[in-house]
């Protein structure tokens, strides 16, 4: 009897688990960022040399010529007043992101983009370029050979271009010279910034942290922020606390939304989109006009004239389905099946969704990109 009872209980639990709806959960580290732990954008102006005649035209781009003269003068070469004709130099903008907690001597990737009329940066080398932050201070210095993803080839009567040959990248091309101080371990509290603002998600994150630690240390401040008070056992060691909680699984929530890209005809609908009872019809009116003129000629040796008699045929055809009924409170799958049943394309579906929204029958926000 005991074994039979245990078997029945196990079967009941298995049936309950199999029938339970599956929900997608995500780690807290995938749902939120730690406030203050962020990258910083850097920018600089420099010169790329070593181009095979594909650089800037110095007569057309004055800032390239001035930069080249200033660089040579710093090297002890005076070319003031001299005529410079070289197509192997290009003025570029160098951009990059300084990683969080980057220390002196570490390296970072940079992107190099041409500013003038250079045709290609292939084979070029970036000279020493200071990278500045928003405060005007130098945080890194970039230099190195460029890797170009595109190319350009041309002849007298044809030209072919693949990718963007005036844009390149230098892997580990910048050396960090200045650190940005951020004492994470000395903070009295830590704030989690949600990547997608939502009241329910913020509350679930706070509840998951409190349940795991066994004390109320997390509190949702607003739909975008969850504040964590450092418990006594983690004082001076906020990194250990974040390591413990960032792996917790939380089911995120989001409002019903439909995203439409009219340029490409892409439609993305969330799972919580619901529609009230509405009837939808879609049809295309096709008008066909064909001309088949007829020529009337007189009999041989007659005194008549050749006459062209017009013959026009006009046809009107309306393609489309009858009214389709979309019932109240249907799910996303039912909505998609109903719209597909009308036999319409994505662009016509965009108009139908906007019309349903205008009628007040769709319970979702429509965002047009």
Automatic annotation (TrEMBL):
The keyword Ligase does not apply. GO terms for cellular component: bacterial-type flagellum basal body, distal rod, P ring; outer membrane-bounded periplasmic space. Its main location: periplasm. One of its GO terms (molecular function) is structural molecule activity. The basal body constitutes a major portion of the flagellar organelle and consists of four rings (L,P,S, and M) mounted on a central rod. Assembles around the rod to form the L-ring and probably protects the motor/basal body from shearing forces during rotation. This is Flagellar P-ring protein. The lineage of its organism: Bacteria, Pseudomonadati, Pseudomonadota, Alphaproteobacteria, Hyphomicrobiales. The gene is flgI.
């Amino acid at each position: 009897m005991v074994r039979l009872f245990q078997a029945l209980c196990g079967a009941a639990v298995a049936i309950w688990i199999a029938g339970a709806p599956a929900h997608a959960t995500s780690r807290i580290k995938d749902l939120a960022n730690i406030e203050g732990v962020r990258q910083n954008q850097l920018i600089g102006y420099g010169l790329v040399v070593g181009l095979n005649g594909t650089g800037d035209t110095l007569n057309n781009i004055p800032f390239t010529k001035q930069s080249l003269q200033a660089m040579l003068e710093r090297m002890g070469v005076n070319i003031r007043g001299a005529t410079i004709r070289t197509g192997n130099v290009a003025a570029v903008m160098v951009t990059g992101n300084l990683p969080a907690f980057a220390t002196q001597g570490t390296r970072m990737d940079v992107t190099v983009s041409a500013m003038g009329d250079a045709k290609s940066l292939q084979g070029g080398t970036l000279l020493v370029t200071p990278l500045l932050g928003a405060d005007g201070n130098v945080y890194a210095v970039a230099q190195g050979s460029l890797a170009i993803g595109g190319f350009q080839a041309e002849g007298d009567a044809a030209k072919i271009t693949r990718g963007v040959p005036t844009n390149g990248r230098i892997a580990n091309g910048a050396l960090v010279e200045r650190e940005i101080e951020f004492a994470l371990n000395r903070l009295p509290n830590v704030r989690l910034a949600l990547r997608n603002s939502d009241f329910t998600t913020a509350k679930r994150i706070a509840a998951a942290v409190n349940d795991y630690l066994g004390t109320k240390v997390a509190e949702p401040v607003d739909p975008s922020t969850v504040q964590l008070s450092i418990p006594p056992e983690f004082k001076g060691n906020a990194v250990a606390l974040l390591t413990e909680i960032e792996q917790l699984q939380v089911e995120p929530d989001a409002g019903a939304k439909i995203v439409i890209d009219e340029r490409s005809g892409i439609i993305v609908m969330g799972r919580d989109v619901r529609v009230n009872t509405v009837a939808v019809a879609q049809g295309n009116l096709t008008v066909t006009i064909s001309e088949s003129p007829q020529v009337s000629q007189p009999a041989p040796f007659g005194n008549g004239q050749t006459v062209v008699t017009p013959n026009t045929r006009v046809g009107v055809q309306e393609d489309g389905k009858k009214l389709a009924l979309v019932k109240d409170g249907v799910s996303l799958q039912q909505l998609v099946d109903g719209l597909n049943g009308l036999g319409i394309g994505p662009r016509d579906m965009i108009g139908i969704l906007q019309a349903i929204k205008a009628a007040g029958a769709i319970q979702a926000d429509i965002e047009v990109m």
